[in-house]
Amino acid sequence: MTEPADIVVVTPHPDDAEFGVAGTVAKWTREGKQVVYVVCTNGNKGTSDPNIKPEQLSAIRQDEQRAAADVLGVREVVFLGNPDQGLEDTPEFRKQIVRMIRLYRPVTVVTADPYRRYIWHRDHRIAGQATIDAVFPYARDHLAYPGLLEEGLQPHKVKEMLFWASENINYLSDITDSFDLKLAALRCHESQVQAMKVSDLEDWLRQRCGDLAEGEDFELAEAFHREEIVW
Question: Spelled out in words, what is the top-level CATH class assigned to the domain 7-228?
Answer without folding.
Answer: alpha beta
